[in-house]
Design a protein that fits this description.
Blueprint (H helix, E strand, L loop, with lengths): L1 H13 L7 E4 L2 E4 L9 H8 L5 E6 L4 H4 L7 E5 L15 H10 L7 E7 L2 E7 L2 E4 L3 E4 L7 E2 L4 E4 H6 L3 H17 L7 H21 L4 H4 L2 H7 L4 H7 L3 H10 L17
Parallel strand pairs: 8-10
Antiparallel strand pairs: 1-7, 2-3, 3-4, 4-5, 5-6, 9-10
Helix pairs in contact: 1-6, 6-7, 9-11
């Protein structure tokens, strides 16, 4: 999850004030044992050393958590002296999700204490969350090559993360989905409009990735490779430009002159 932690952090910074919502950003990505099936948990414990505490799975480079010295593998005991365990506020969710929600609800710009277990010893660190775009990347276990958004967050299957050949490609992919969130795009049965919406998300995603200091030109070929994996390619092409056109559009997209971004492209007529 380190790759998605880094990409998420940089894209959220690049989005500036364009998102409809913001939250406290620490740069932490959490995992927990209850996110895995019962049959897999013994292997997870053996491989990752996970316990009944939420565990740090990723720390975005340059984030408040990284500056505080938190590292992957640390187990989280308490936030501001409070244990996170109850499902009262988030019923049916995993411990990792509840911890992430508690972190996002922290006061941005104010120091907070995080108590961790590193090895056998508890440690307490102080960090000051930033206030950034509230969109987060969640890595799923779905067996498909298709990222998507629910309008608030981004879901990328682990298989898709592995399919990307660089963080530049991952940023272009995640940036596309963040573009949908920023534009508040809605589903439409109008195929021509759907294609225009997808083209705009490509352009916005390219701008976001560029502002986040990713090499979008080298990542452009991702769209051609992805298109070749789609069994119903002819249907996808009706709703999106061809992979060749999408790649060329990203290559031709000028690097934004102002970062973070302050606007998105207009929808083509």
């Amino acid at each position: 999850m380190q790759r998605t932690a880094d990409v998420e952090w940089r894209l959220r910074q690049a989005a500036g004030n364009m998102c409809s919502g913001t939250d406290a950003a620490t740069g932490l990505v959490m995992d927990s044992l209850d996110a895995y099936g019962a049959g897999d948990r013994s292997m997870v414990v053996e491989t990752l050393g996970m316990s009944d505490l939420a565990q740090v799975a990723g720390v975005a480079k340059g984030s408040p958590a990284a500056r505080a010295g938190i590292v992957p593998g640390d187990a989280l005991i308490a936030i501001q002296g409070r244990n996170i365990g109850s499902e009262d506020n988030y019923p049916g969710t995993t411990l990792a999700v509840r911890v992430q929600a508690a972190l996002a609800a922290l006061p941005a710009g104010q120091p907070v204490s995080i108590t961790l277990r590193r090895g056998a010893a508890p440690i307490t660190v102080s960090l000051t969350p930033a206030r950034l775009c509230a969109a987060h990347i969640f890595v799923t276990t779905e067996n498909r090559l298709n990222a998507y958004t629910d309008g608030s967050n981004i879901a990328i299957p682990a298989r898709m993360v592995d399919f990307t050949r660089s963080d530049d490609e991952l940023a272009v992919l995640a940036g596309h989905e963040l573009g949908h969130i920023i534009a508040r795009d809605e589903q439409t049965s109008n195929i021509a409009k759907r294609r225009r919406i997808e083209d705009r998300a490509d352009a916005t995603g390219s701008d976001l990735a560029s502002c986040a200091s990713y090499d979008t030109r080298s990542a452009a070929a991702f769209w051609r490779r992805l298109e070749k994996t789609q069994p119903l390619r002819f249907l996808a092409i009706r709703m999106q430009s061809t992979g060749k056109v999408r790649a060329q559009n990203v290559r031709d997209r000028p690097i934004p002159t102002q970062c973070p971004i302050t606007g998105i492209p207009a929808l083509r007529k």
